[in-house]
């Protein structure tokens, strides 16, 4: 009975994942729910049958919710892409700011209220939200209504392994287009910001200004992030990196630890004031809801707020609080409201850490019984919060924090004290400013000590354990071993044997079939990136940096993809194009054996970038008149392909697109189809992975299933 609610949440999540992988009509999920409900009533005397039907109903409910949300998203006016339209909309939130040749720009999320075409004065009702890039000054607060002419563009996503799932994030928020202000047009403020959202935003701005009266700029933003989340763009990059290395990055956004501290403080103060249960619950609920709103209502905030409210209610109703049920109910409520939250990284990490603490803390504390009581609880919480997340952390971040336990024991308690004092200073500062400033003077040395202590721990040698993403079978074996150790002790030996088999057999097979060479061709937008990994694990990277691409292209699209594949050292790097910034970023993210920077003049001369011992060739802008026979070719640009003979006997082609108007690219794709040559474009089909073994190429890409030369397999 203890885990029924968790099984229900897992069944709901499984239905959502199934609907995302294999799209089904919403009616199919609704029919499943309609079948299970009366069947549960008919078989209500048989507990196991009812339980199975209940889980099937939750699975069907997950199918229905995602199919319905997908249907709503597809109905948004995405046909506006490529048009210039007049839009009236309401500012939802400000995302980030960055420097451009036109000056500093900011990106906002705008709710589209209505729109009109240039030659049609009629106003059409809008739906959904769009990204809008506007000048950074003036700042537009939430709920401000704007009227502006926008150039609408399709959203584009890099399809490389290991990247943040921006596609599901945008679907969760109903964001369907991006847009830019049309030159020589004005931004009209139709209505100033008003309402609760705007007032909360102004309150956060006021509190940040109050912090800056005592603290310097960086520490003021650090304190604001500790208390309410956000401000990540204003924080020093080295600070974010240090908190990531020590595993304390979660404390810079509001999560369960914040809610626990807040509710504990409210309960203590309420008891001291002799409040009865019901007024104390109302006070706790008001404080939690207000604090969650100030923290912008992110997924961890909502999850921890719901669990906190359930906990506070259990104290009022004098009922036993079961954290397992509270977590499951919070997750189910959030997924029913917004099923795309399941793919949100913060939701996954928040629920995974909470589940680890709820399910594993007691047995881990028993194992740590040799430790003093004051250490046992903190150490067990730190370990349990990580145990269920290890495969997820390796998938997204390709590393584990080695000194996380040390940082949680030494730095986290100080930061918890800073959070409590900071909340008190914020409350007092809104009433009597000098009292709030006095508390800030007390906070300053504590915050300074915590930040510098975290820098010190992060700078220790071997502070990160680097490891690429685990294969599916390794993650499955790991969770099977956890099940044996913590949940099914009666079958521990049997399950551990199966876990060992599940890990060893695929691992040995993967070692036996290891390719002689692996080529990764990544989706980098206007840039080009190809990495070759040999059977001795040495890796070479060829990178062409476009002058039109974003300066953070490598950090957001290439570095996570290489680390995801277990590539942390590059023996040879060749950078061309706008090479200076690209080379600096690569040297910052990787250890490099040799670095070769190619000037534009050398590149224009037509250098054949790669010619390995296997039949694979990588070309830049200059192409030969005649390609070698029977080889796989990757062509980064077809601008000079006018006099080049098409490689009609190539087993496979990788053609990069120069833009939507690249006529030669379209012509070569059509020619490849005529010759029945499989052809893929990373900018359209996603990252391409080619493996060479025993005279055959095996090709994988998100845009196609797979292809193997020398055998009658079809690229789909």
Write up what this structure looks like.
With 716 residues, the chain is an alpha+beta fold. It has five domains: 4-74, no CATH class; 78-193, Beta Barrel (OB fold (Dihydrolipoamide Acetyltransferase, E2P)); 200-466, no CATH class; 472-512; 517-708, Ribonuclease Z/Hydroxyacylglutathione hydrolase-like (Metallo-beta-lactamase, Chain A). 50% of the residues lie in helices and 20% in strands. The chain is built from 24 helices and 22 strands. The strands form four sheets. The protein has an eight-stranded mixed beta sheet with strand order 14-13-12-11-10-20-21-22. A five-stranded mixed beta barrel has the order 1-2-4-6-5. The two termini are 46 Å apart. The model is unreliable at 601-611 and 711-716 (pLDDT under 50).
| Percent range of helical residues | 40-55%
Secondary-structure-based class equals: alpha+beta
CA(first)-CA(last) distance:
46 Å
So what's the overall shape? globular
The percentage of residues in β strands lies in 15-25%
Largest β-sheet summary: 8 strands, mixed
Strands, count: 22
Which stretches are poorly predicted, pLDDT < 50 over at least 5 residues? 601-611, 711-716
Task: Please tell me how large the radius of gyration is.
Answer: 28 Å
Number of helices: 24
Order of strands across the widest beta sheet?
Answer: 14-13-12-11-10-20-21-22
Number of domains: 5
Short synopsis of the structure:
With 716 residues, this protein is of the alpha+beta class. Helix content is 50%, strand content 20%.
Descriptive keywords:
716 residues, alpha+beta, 8-stranded mixed beta sheet, 5-stranded mixed barrel, 24 helices
